[in-house]
Specification:
alpha+beta, UDP-n-acetylglucosamine1-carboxyvinyl-transferase, Chain, four-stranded mixed β-sheet, 23 strands, 25% strand, elongated, binds uridine-diphosphate-N-acetylglucosamine, binds phosphoenolpyruvate
C-alpha cells in the first residue's frame, strides 16, 4: 500500500488547477444509463471513484470510451443486470444506478451499500422516493430489487431531509416517469444542479434544481449530449486550507466563488484572505490564525466534506475552536490521528473541542477515509519534521494528483510505492 512522506514547514506559493467535481461526476455517470444515446462527459477528475463508477457502468453493459478527462458513455446496447457485491463494496455511490436502471428497464437490482467509516449511511430515502414514484422495493439476498412493471408515475416526492443522493435518485427516476414530479425539501448542493444541467442536455425538462423545490416533466425524449462537469468545490476548499495552514498564497484556478460562500466566510473568520482572480480565486494568509466556531450543514451551509480539513487548520490557531458535525454520526476518525501529530482535541458528542496552538510534530499516521486522510496531509504540511501517511488509497478516491499539485507549490511531499 502506497504511503506519503511529507516534511512540513514550507509556505505554499503558486497556482493549483482545480479538477472536475467527483460528487458531480458520479451521478452523471449513472444518469448516462437512462438514455439509449451517448453522453460525453468532460472535465472528469482522474480519481479512483470515477474510474470505479465507469467500470460499473461497463459491467451493466454500457460501452465507455476514454480520452484523458473525457468519457463517452454509450448505453444503447444495455440490458439490465446486477453487479456483484464485490464491485459495489468499493464505493457507496453505485446505489445511484438504481434510479436510472429502474426508470429505463422497469426493474433494477443493485447491491445494498454497506455503511462506511463516516457512518451507517442508510438509503431508505432513496427507496421511499422510488416507492412514491410507483416502484415495488424489496431486499433479496443483499440486493435492492426495485420493480415498476407498468412504469413509474410522476408524483409529489417529499424528502424527510435534504439528502443529496436521494434527491439525485428521485430526479433521475422522474425523468422517465409518466407526468410531472415535484421534489420537495430537495438538496440544494451545486452537484444536484449540475446533474439537472446534464440531464437537461440529454433531453430532460427539469426546473428548480439548486432550490428546495424541483419540478421534472417525465417522458423524456432522450438525445445524444455533452456536458462539462463543474469544478470541485471540496478540492478547492482543501487547497484553500493548504494555503492558510502553511501561511502561503495559492491561486485556485477554476474555483467558483459562488459555490464556496460558507467556506470563504469560515476562512475569513480565521484570518485568511480570499479574493477573486481572473482564473478563479486567491487564498493567502500572512497574520496569525484565529479560532473558529463551525457547524456543518446542508448546502449552502458549511460542508461536512471540509470539516476534517478545517479541524487541521483550527489546530494551528491559538485558543479553543468548536467544530460540530451534524450530517454524519461518525465523522471524527481524524481526531486520534491528529493527536499523534500533537493536536489537543476532545470530543463531546457531535462537537470537537480543539485547543489549538500546540506545535504539530511529524509522526506516522493512518488515513481512514477520504477527507480524514487529506486533513492529515494538511496538518503534516504545517508540522515540524517528517510525517508518513499510510493507506493513501483513500486520498486517490477523490484527489487527482494530490502530491504533484502540492509539490508544484513548494511542498516537500513524496509518494512511497510499496
Ligand atoms: C457521492 C456524493 O455526492 N457524496 C456526497 C453526498 O453523499 P450522500 O448523498 O450519501 O449524502 P446524503 O445527503 O444523502 O446524506 C446526508 C445524511 O442523510 C442520511 N441519509 C441519507 C440518505 C438516506 O436514504 N437515508 C439517510 O438517513 C445519511 O446517512 C447522512 O447522515 O452528500 C454528502 C453530504 O453533503 C457528502 O458528504 C458526500 O460527499
Ligand atoms: C463522503 C464522501 O464521498 P462518498 O459519499 O462517495 O463516500 C466525500 O466525498 O467526502
Amino acid at each position: 500500500m502506497d504511503r506519503l512522506r511529507i516534511t512540513g514547514g514550507k509556505p505554499l506559493q503558486g497556482a493549483v488547477t482545480i479538477a472536475g467535481a467527483k460528487n458531480a461526476a458520479l451521478p452523471q455517470i449513472a444518469a448516462a444509463l437512462l438514455s439509449p444515446h451517448p453522453l460525453e462527459l468532460s472535465n472528469l477528475p482522474l480519481v479512483s471513484d470515477v474510474e470505479n463508477m465507469l467500470q460499473v457502468a461497463e459491467l451493466y453493459g454500457a460501452s465507455v470510451t476514454r480520452n484523458a478527462h473525457t468519457a463517452v458513455i454509450d448505453a444503447s446496447a444495455m440490458v439490465s443486470c446486477e453487479v456483484s457485491y464485490e464491485t459495489v463494496r468499493r464505493m457507496r455511490a453505485t446505489v445511484l444506478f438504481l434510479g436510472p436502471l429502474l426508470a429505463r428497464f422497469g426493474e433494477a437490482r443493485v447491491s445494498l451499500p454497506g455503511g462506511c467509516a463516516i457512518g451507517a449511511r442508510p438509503v431508505d430515502m432513496h427507496l421511499k422516493a422510488l416507492e412514491m414514484l410507483g416502484a415495488d422495493i424489496g431486499i433479496e439476498g443483499g440486493l435492492i430489487v426495485a420493480r415498476a412493471s407498468d412504469g413509474l408515475k410522476g408524483t409529489r416526492v417529499i424528502l424527510s431531509s435534504p439528502s443529496v443522493g436521494a434527491t439525485e435518485t428521485a430526479m433521475m427516476a422522474a425523468t422517465a416517469a409518466r407526468g410531472e414530479t415535484e421534489i420537495l425539501n430537495a438538496a440544494r448542493e451545486p452537484e444536484v444542479a449540475d446533474l439537472a444541467a446534464c440531464l437537461n442536455a440529454m433531453g430532460a425538462k427539469i426546473e428548480g434544481a439548486g432550490t428546495h423545490r424541483i419540478i421534472i416533466e417525465g417522458g423524456t425524449a432522450w438525445k445524444a449530449a455533452a456536458h462539462h462537469v463543474i469544478p470541485d468545490r471540496i478540492e478547492a476548499g482543501t487547497y484553500a486550507v493548504a494555503a492558510a495552514i502553511t501561511g502561503g498564497a495559492l491561486e485556485l484556478v477554476n474555483a467558483r466563488m459562488e459555490n464556496l460562500a460558507a467556506v470563504i466566510q469560515a476562512l475569513e473568520v480565521m484570518g485568511v484572505n480570499v479574493w477573486p482572480s481572473d482564473r478563479g480565486l486567491v487564498v493567502s494568509r500572512s497574520g496569525t490564525l484565529r479560532t473558529t466556531d463551525l457547524t456543518t450543514e446542508p448546502y449552502p451551509g458549511f460542508p461536512t466534506d471540509l470539516q476534517a480539513q478545517f479541524m487541521a487548520l483550527a489546530c494551528c490557531a491559538d485558543g479553543t475552536s468548536l467544530i460540530r458535525e451534524t450530517i454524519f454520526e461518525n465523522r471524527f476518525m481524524h481526531v486520534p490521528e491528529l493527536a499523534r501529530l500533537g493536536a489537543d482535541i476532545t470530543l463531546q458528542g457531535t462537537t470537537a473541542v480543539v485547543r489549538g496552538g500546540k506545535p504539530l510534530k511529524g509522526a506516522q499516521v493512518m488515513a481512514t477515509d477520504l477527507r480524514a486522510s487529506v486533513c492529515l496531509v494538511l496538518a503534516a504540511l504545517a508540522a515540524e519534521g517528517e510525517t508518513i501517511i499510510n493507506r493513501v488509497y483513500h486520498i486517490d478516491r477523490g484527489y487527482e494528483q494530490l502530491n504533484r499539485k502540492l509539490a508544484q507549490c513548494g511542498a516537500t511531499i513524496e509518494r512511497l510505492q510499496t
